[in-house]
Amino acid sequence: MDSYINRIIRAAKLDVNLYEEVEADKGAMTQAMGVVVLSSVAAGIGSISSVGFKGLIVGTISALIGWFIWAYLTYFIGTKLLPEPQTKSDVGELLRTIGFSSSPGLIRIFGIIPGLATLVIFVASIWMLVAFVIAVRQALDYQSTLRAVGVCIIGWIIQVIIFGILYAILAPKPV
Predict the structure, then answer these.
(1) pLDDT tens-digit series, residues 124-171
(2) 25 in the Ramachandran plot: left (φ > 0), alpha (ψ -120 to 50) or beta?
C-alpha cells in the first residue's frame, strides 16, 4: 500500500521516472485503474453539492470509459499517425501511464468546500493535463514534448466528439 500511495504522489509531482516505471510494470494496471476511480470519485464528491449523488456514479463510470477511449486513441495517434523513429508502445503502457496521470485529480475532493469548486477544478484540470502530456511522452518514447502535446490535443478533440455523440443519443429528451 505504501508503494501505491508513493506512486500516486510521485505521479502528482510529475516525476518522469514514475511514468517510466509504470510504463514497464505490467502489474500496475490495477493500480492505474484505481487512480482513475479515486480521481473521479474525488471529483464526484467535490461536485456533490451542485450535481448530487448521481454525478458521483455517472462521473466514475464516464472517467473509466474515457480512460480506455483516450488510451486507445492516444495509442493509434501516437504510434500510427505521429510516431517518432524510436516510438514503440502498446495500449497497456498507455493505460498505465495515463491512469497515473489522473492522480492530481484527487484534489478535486476539495471542490466540496463552498466557494472553492471553480478554482479547484481549474487547478486540477491544468495539473492533470500536464501529467497527461508527460505520461504520453514517456509511454510513446517521444523526445519531443510538443509532439506529445499534439497527440493529446488530437485525442482530446476526438474524445469530445465521441462523448458529444453519445450524450446526444443517450441523454434524456425533454418532454
Answers:
(1) 989 999 999 999 999 999 999 999 999 999 988 998 898 888 878 877
(2) beta
Q: At what angle do helices 91-100 and 53-76 cross, to 10 degrees?
A: 140
Residues 87-110 have a mean pLDDT of 94
- Name the residue type at position 56: L
- Between CA 111 and CA 166 the distance in angstroms is 27
Q: Is the pLDDT of residue 36 over 90?
A: yes
Length of the chain: 175
CA distance 47 to 62: 15
Q: What is the DSSP letter of 77?
A: I
Residues 43, 139, 153: CA angle, nearest 5 degrees: 60
